[in-house]
Predict the structure.
Amino acid sequence: MTTTVRFDEADERLLDELAATHGGRSNVLRQALRQYAAELDRRQALDEFLADWERESGAVDEDAVAEMARRFDL
C-alpha cells in the first residue's frame, strides 16, 4: 500500500535527518505510527486504571496528583 503525506520544509528536513539513521523515510514513518499507536494504548490503559481506582477509592485528590507530578518530574 502507498500513502501520500504532505510535509512542510521543516518536517521534510526532520524526516530526512531521521531517515539517515533509521534506514529510510518509510521506516521512520512506520516506527512513528507504531509508537503513536502504542502511546494511545498506554493512555487508554491509564485512563481505565484511574477510572477503576476512582470507582474503588473515591475521587482523585488533585493536590496529591500535583505532588506526584512534581516528585516524578511529570
About this structure: The chain has a mean pLDDT of 93. The CA atoms of residues 47 and 65 lie 14 Å apart. The chain has one domain: 9-71. Helices lie at 9-22, 25-57, 62-71.
